[in-house]
Amino acid sequence: MDIATLYRRSTLVVALVALSAGIAVYFLNGWFHRTFLAGLGITQPSGDAIGTVLILSVAYLAQRLVSLAFFRDQFAGMATVQQQMASSSRNVEVVNEEVSQELRAVPTYNGVLRNQLDSVIQQTEQAAYDITSRLQAIDGVVGRLNEFVTTSSSEANQLAEHSEENIVQNQRLIGEMRQYIETRITEAQADQQRVAQVVSEARSLESLTNLIKDIAAQTNLLALNAAIEAARAGEAGRGFAVVADEVRKLSAETERAVQAINRGIQGVAGAIETQLQEKLSSVNLDREQAALGQFADQLVQVGTSYEDILRHQAMVIETVRGSSEELATMFMDTLASVQFQDVTRQQIEHTMQALERLDSHLAGLAERLLLAERPDFAYVPLAEHLDQLYSQYVMDSQRSTHQNSLNQSGGASGGSPKVELF
């Protein structure tokens, strides 16, 4: 029941009692003074005093009776309110005791959370250490790769310089070979012409043998004519017949010799033409030229392929070197990124410190509930704990998160975070 209801009830009871007293005085005043006081032999002032006492006593009793009739107690419901307040007070004390016990149990709960956070710190530190160890092993491999690439690059540069000299020399040899091919073709063509000329000259001797053959035939004819004339001369021409016979025999021998010479010349010319025809033929010369040209082209292709191989090798080594340097840079960036664990550790430690502050604050609230009757009991408000926590931040991200959580605006203070890295 609130105080306004109590006031209304008290006013209603007093009004009823006052109205009843006023009516009684109005109607009983004459009887009281003329009959009752006279019968008792009491003076009017004494009667008025006695009447006032009676009226007040009756009014008091009437107020209690009216309150009892309307509100079932003698004090306008104040007894019920007192009982309710007593019961509520006992309930508040019980609740305060329960809340106080729960508040005292919060540090235990926060202790479990702190232990869990500490376990997280240890696990992340171990994981960061393992990652760092593996990254250091990778760094050793990358270092050896860099050394190998550097050595290979140096060797490749030296090989490229030596190969360029060989390529220049090969190009010079190819030029000399092409010149030799052209000279060889020219000489082969000249040999072909000379052989053709020799065969032609050898075949031209046939006309001479034919001339000798004609002379032998005419000599044989003359010898035959001489033999006929000697036979006509008889005994005188017998010696001339012998000479004519010898001349005819000589002519026959000459014809046979000429035929043999002619066959020999033809055989020699045929042998020369047969032996050198295949070697000096245009087809063979073309084949030889094509073969030598193909060989020269293959040498050129070999040189070009060798140059391409050198360029490709240089490109591969350069690519590997660039990738190795990029890998080393990425490794250093990754190694620096592992430092996140220390940032996380410090943030968790700040959170654990905040939990310890909360433990202390909750313990103070528990004492405040139990010592509610002590107005001098003091404790630090939670807002001041938040301000102290904010002042201990070392990173702008912590300040920003704090302000966002409280719906506050304000730029984070400048400067590098004071984070201790391992």
TrEMBL record:
SUPFAM superfamilies: Methyl-accepting chemotaxis protein (MCP) signaling domain. Residues 149-268 form the Methyl-accepting transducer domain. The chain crosses the membrane at residues 12-29, 49-71. GO terms for biological process: signal transduction. Keywords: Membrane, Transducer, Transmembrane, Transmembrane helix. Residues 400-410 have a biased composition (Polar residues). PANTHER family: LYSOZYME-LIKE PROTEIN-RELATED (PTHR32089:SF112), METHYL-ACCEPTING CHEMOTAXIS PROTEIN MCPB (PTHR32089). This is Chemotaxis protein. It comes from Pseudothauera rhizosphaerae. The lineage of its organism: Bacteria, Pseudomonadati, Pseudomonadota, Betaproteobacteria, Rhodocyclales.
